[in-house]
């Protein structure tokens, strides 16, 4: 391995949106040196006031032990491709993208032939809002971090994961879950992407415009993520189109059963469907 040029615990963040801003703020509050790049330079200038130590320039990139790719999937891939030769030997590069197959395939390939390591990551936290203004240092407190490690021997993998946990310690993640990229994308199609599709479609009812005074917790819970960053979610949905389409199809089939029972005024069938859903939810909570 070539000589490392990084400064221990120094962090570079690529993209200062909700995720990147939250990582930068958490690492800064944890006493780490943080440098950042953002397509809109005004955001970098804003962050320099109280969050970051400076801009992530070509001169600074080789000094970072950890680099966090916090942009859209293609933006993250393009940045890594362009800057691959500048990253210090021994450094760790992670992403925060909500799909893993496309990002891991491309970024593992970019990392080949270099002495730094790419690790696929997905912090399971966020809000319905976007942008640096909504980022916060405690965004990840207690949250799971899904980790897709590269192919390497067990000893080397253990060493990388221990270093990664140390580097991310200021973020306060509650757990680190190892996964393959394929299994991650199967699960996230159900636990996250389908929820956004359903919420976004649900508010298209004409009743939405007159719900005030007639809605409480159920409405708020189901519609929270109807507000979303459309360009970002478009890219995530299409990068996981096979899994998400299957989940939507399953939901449509299940909804049709409820509709058929209601249209037929079949109380026995309707109660059985409701009881089945209640049972499955309880079983999932016991796992």
Automatic annotation (TrEMBL):
Supply the name of the protein.
Prephenate dehydrogenase
Q: Which lineage ranks, top first, belong to the organism behind this chain?
A: Bacteria, Bacillati, Actinomycetota, Coriobacteriia, Coriobacteriales
Q: Which Pfam families match?
A: PDH_C, PDH_N
State the Gene Ontology BP annotations: tyrosine biosynthetic process
Query: Taking every annotated instance into account, which residue ranges of this chain make up the domain Prephenate/arogenate dehydrogenase?
Result: 9-287
UniProt source species:
Parafannyhessea umbonata
Molecular functions (GO terms): NAD+ binding; prephenate dehydrogenase (NAD+) activity; prephenate dehydrogenase (NADP+) activity
Keywords per UniProt:
Oxidoreductase
Instruction: Please verify whether the record's keywords include Oxidoreductase.
Output: yes
**Family the UniProt entry places it in:** Belongs to the prephenate/arogenate dehydrogenase family.
The record, for InterPro entries, names: 6-PGluconate_DH-like_C_sf, NAD(P)-bd_dom_sf, PDH_C, PDH_N, Preph/Arog_dehydrog, Prephen_DH
Answer yes or no on keyword Transcription.
no
Recorded hits in SUPFAM superfamilies, A to Z, give: 6-phosphogluconate dehydrogenase C-terminal domain-like, NAD(P)-binding Rossmann-fold domains
Q: Name the source's superkingdom.
A: Bacteria
